[in-house]
Design goal:
301 residues; alpha/beta; 13 strands
Length: 301
């Protein structure tokens, strides 16, 4: 339900009753109609399996595109329930959404008093440190700000929640995804709502083991992707009721033209350049046309 306009954003109410924003610049909502809070829990927090960590352990997290802070707030609530500390880094280019969230009583009331205070502190001071948890937002282009994340820290969870690849390819390029994957600890998880073949193929080439998020809504075949690091060939803790192995249909999707990656070798290409570069590569590719893949699997259903 549309409520009103604010600056370059429109406030929208999602199906779980929570508030989100629609960006007039990107022509896309921050969350799907399923629900802003529901999405953060079932597409990011639950698949992270943080309840498998021991009490008093520190969970190291990179949050790509802080936005309105739903993923962080859900993470704060869950980690507090489990008595787990956080060492959190957020990457975000636009401070206006978190400013809106930190001043909006409806959004703040979704969360505990302690979480509300952290969101307000992040807006005012770009981070927080309380008890044994701490966090810091690195404002600016994530492709450059990732350089300011400590190189000696290996991360347990990376949440990638940028606008969709066709809208914001800068944060879905193979080069950026490889850099994110390189920051994972052994058994660390890169989690995203995207089930794009291009993204999955890049994550696979980055050395991650792919899993498919089980759909929240039955009309979809996947709710996203989990890429699990297996550095040093150690055992992988990947048992979860929230994701599964890729199906044969999804595996074949990685062999189509849709799997051609977004490329940004310099790390400063515009979205138009990245999209044009991919379009040219797709036109020259001998991969199976994606329409053939769709037709084949539609018949199989």
């Amino acid at each position: 339900m549309e409520i009103k306009n604010i600056n370059e954003f429109k406030i929208v109410e999602t199906n779980d009753g929570t508030i989100s924003l629609y960006s007039n610049q990107f022509k896309e909502s921050f969350h799907s109609e399923i629900g802003a809070r529901k999405e953060s829990i079932f597409k990011f927090i639950k698949p992270a399996n943080i309840d498998s960590y021991n009490q008093n352990e520190t969970l190291r997290v990179i949050d790509v595109c802080l936005g309105l802070g739903y993923n962080l707030c859900s993470l704060l609530e869950e980690s507090r329930r489990l008595n787990i500390s956080l060492n959190w880094f957020g990457l975000e280019i636009d401070k206006r959404p978190i400013e809106f969230a930190s001043n909006n009583k409806i959004i703040l009331d979704y969360w505990s008093t302690e979480t509300q205070e952290i969101i307000k502190t992040i807006y005012k001071y770009n981070g927080w440190e309380k008890n044994s948890s701490k966090g810091k937002v690195l404002w600016g282009d994530a492709r450059q700000q990732i350089n300011n994340i400590p190189k000696n820290t290996a991360f347990d969870v990376i949440m990638l929640d940028a606008f969709s690849p066709s809208i914001c390819p800068e944060l879905w390029s193979e080069e950026f995804l490889i850099r994110l994957a390189s920051k994972l600890a052994t058994n660390g998880k890169l989690i995203t709502y995207s089930s794009s073949a291009a993204i999955r193929a890049s994550l696979k080439r980055a050395g991650l083991r792919l899993k498919s998020l089980k759909p929240i809504d039955s009309k979809y075949w996947s709710s996203g992707t989990v890429g699990i690091s297996n550095k040093n060939n150690k055992g992988i803790k990947d048992n979860s009721k929230f994701y599964r192995n890729l199906s044969p249909m999804e595996e074949e999707h990685l062999l189509t033209k849709a799997a051609i990656p977004y490329r940004d070798p310099t790390g400063n290409s515009t979205s138009k350049v990245i999209l044009r570069r991919r379009s040219i590569e797709q036109s020259l590719s001998r991969n199976e046309p994606t329409t053939n893949w769709k037709r084949r699997w539609n018949k199989a259903r």
